[in-house]
Amino acid sequence: MSSLAERKARLIVHGDAPYNAEPPLERLRSAYRTAADDFYVRSHGDLPEIDADGYRLTLDGALPTALELSLHGLQKRFPQVTVTATMQCAGNRRADMRAVAPVSGDPWDGGAIGTADWTGVRLGDVLREAGITEGANLHVAFESHDTVEGHPYGASIPLAKALSPETLLAFAMNGAPLLPEHGFPLRAVVPGFAGVRSPKWLKRITVQDRPSDNPIQAGDYKLYPADVTAETADPATGHTINIMPLNAVICEPARGASLQAGASRITGYAVSGDRAVVRVDVSGDGGRTWAQAALEHDAGAPFAWTFWMIDLELPSGEHELAVRAWDEAGQTQPAAPDDTWNYKGYLSASWHRVRVTVD
Ligand SMILES: Nc1nc2c(c(=O)[nH]1)N[C@H]1C(S)=C(S)[C@@H](COP(=O)(O)O)O[C@H]1N2
Ligand SMILES: [Mo]
Using CA positions, which residue lies closest to atom 18 of ligand 1? Predict the structure, then answer.
């Protein structure tokens, strides 16, 4: 395994402590399954170092049988499954919102996203073994080994999502044990939900009648209207970000690229938390006219992104490329970041625009 320093050197680093980094878009688009060392890292606190041999996961709360599982015990006791799914930060593309007005948080470009084969056990299988009452109006709260401003990291998901077959306790990514920065030895993977609901370095899972009261769940990752500020924000009225919206990004060419006259290849990704992407439109003239891109999707992976590409004839001069995806409900993305601007810069999902020059 490479060292953390070597892996850091491959990425665009937004901060060292906590460590936050994303891959260049061109490299992100080079493989449908993102290599673990090209996968963005979002951390809120320290990177805990956990010894796999001594590792224990506790399950408690509203469960007839509390469980304590070693990593090996978990792997032996429950069927192992692999789910190909996209993980995305709620702050992906925040940089585009920051161009409208100041926002808080790291200025992620379109690289706070990645797709992997996650191998683990179904969280639902573990909860059923502990005797969970299906259909109850409960929440599954996770607590992790890292510390964020004096508290352990914590977040929760509704029981229905926890019991859904795609939701995993994962120990491997693309066939190898999780890297330390991606949650070794065990993390949750909650496909379709914002990354914040997929806690890394899991310590404890508690079933309870209300969402986690951890500040990450109760205070952060809320969507506010445009007139709300850091001073007026009331977390009790902010919308809890779970399902990720429809989004699309141009990965190549890069912003400001110089292209040769003739057909130019334009590539990127499109993604939606809970609906299929059915069409991707690409414009060479800032959104006045559109052409349809060819789509590449893994039919067996409903929670994974769609890759798209198109060859566009662009005359010489300056052009604004734009992309917008459509989902199976016939919905598309807002045209401008102003439309959904919020002071936290979450869910930035307007048409992605890239200016290029053609010789
Ligand atoms: N314990 C813990 N889990 C965490 C986080 C964290 O800081 N601590 N960050 C969350 C956020 S906001 C995201 S977007 C994803 C990122 O996962 P990755 O770093 O493996 O890409 O992890 C989530 N799980
Ligand atoms: Mo995130």
Answer: 41
Domain match, 188 and 329 both:
no
Tokens 């951390």 sit on residue: 43
Nearest to 61 by CA among 124, 120, 125, 133: 133
Q: CA-CA distance, 198 to 157, in Å (whole number)?
A: 9
Task: Enumerate residues lining ligand 1, CB below 6 A.
Answer: 39-44, 87, 89, 144, 146, 153, 182-183, 195-196, 198-201
Angle, CA 296 vertex, CA 294 and CA 299 arms, to 5°: 135
Q: Which CATH number fits the domain that encloses residue 27? A: 3.90.420.10
- The answer to whether 112 and 89 are in contact (CB under 8 A) is yes
For 263, the 3-state DSSP assignment is strand
- 37 and 161 share a domain? yes
3-state secondary structure of 190: coil
Measured CA angle at 90 (ends 215, 180), to 5 deg = 75
Asked if omega into 185 is within 30° of 0 (cis), the reply is: yes
- Which residue's entry shows tokens 């020059």? 357
- Give 282's strand partners: 291, 323
E-strand spans in 67-201? 67-70, 80-88, 113-122, 139-148, 151-158, 168-173, 176-177, 187-189
Residue 26 is part of which domain span? 4-240
Residue 234: closest CA among 224, 244, 246: 224
Residue listed under structure tokens 């045209």: 335
Q: How many domains does the chain have?
A: 2
Q: Running along the chain, 359 residues long, what does each successive block of 10 average in pLDDT?
A: 94 97 98 98 97 97 97 98 98 97 97 98 98 94 97 98 98 98 98 98 98 97 97 95 98 97 96 98 98 97 98 96 98 97 98 97
Q: Select from 200, 217, 222 the residue to mutate for testing ligand 1; criterion: most ligand atoms less than 8 Å from CB.
A: 200
Q: Which residue has the CA at smallest separation from atom 23 of ligand 1?
A: 196
β-strand partners of 269 = 249, 307
